[in-house]
Amino acid sequence: MYLVEHGTLLLTLGTPESGAEARTDTASAAVPVPEFAEVFKAYSGFVWRVLLRLGVAESDVDDVAQEVFLGIHRNLSSFEGRCALRTWVYGICHRRAIDYRRRAMARPEVATDEPPDVGSEGGQEEGMDLGLARERLKQLLESLDDEKRSVFVLFEVEGIPMEEVAEIVGCPLQTAYSRLYAARKKVDALAQRMRAQRRSP
To answer: Domain boundaries in the chain?
Structure first.
């Protein structure tokens, strides 16, 4: 049994199938299937970051990250090395984040008398600037719909080649480029409005 932990995330999983032998990629070179524990150790922080940027609320990221690693565990033995392991993990994160956002849209809002606490703790100026930058990035990403956000995050933020982005989101390459251009236009427009508001007295 595997018992692995990251923050409050805890997974207890059965041992992957022993038949997870080396696969071959498109070039017919041997591609060893990594152990789940190795993948978890290498990608746990990465999965958290990507899920947050793809719109998963911080309060829910534990649960969605667990869904991601359950999916990785179930399918790791079938990984054939036709893309980088990072790209494959991205694809699972993308699908789980889209599922999450669709569920969140279907949930009714809960009324509260207290406004959400979005302030940052006091600290050094550098830390405050970093917190402000993260909040602005969050606002910019929230202005995009799921399709544009996924392409923008994967290409502009995570630096994934567009061919791999198109594969991850499951659309033609030209469609992925169209979504990227539309996302850039919307993000630029919002960024200009944010800068104008900061300059206003």
So the answer is: 1-17+30-107, 141-201
- Which H/E stretch holds residue 140? helix 125-142
Q: Are 164 and 87 within 8 A, CB to CB?
A: yes
Mean pLDDT computed over 14-31: 42
Instruction: Report pTM.
Output: 0.66
**H or E segment to which residue 9 belongs:** strand 9-13
Give the model confidence (pLDDT) of 51-101 as tens digits. Answer: 999 989 989 999 999 999 999 999 998 888 888 888 899 999 999 999 998
State whether CATH 3.40.50.300 applies to domain 1-17+30-107. Answer: no
CATH 1.10.230.10, applies to 141-201: no
With vertex at residue 160, the alpha carbon angle to CA 75 and CA 174, rounded to the nearest 5 degrees, is 100
Query: The tokens of 112 are what?
Result: 């509260």
Kind plus residue range of the DSSP H or E element containing 31: strand 30-31
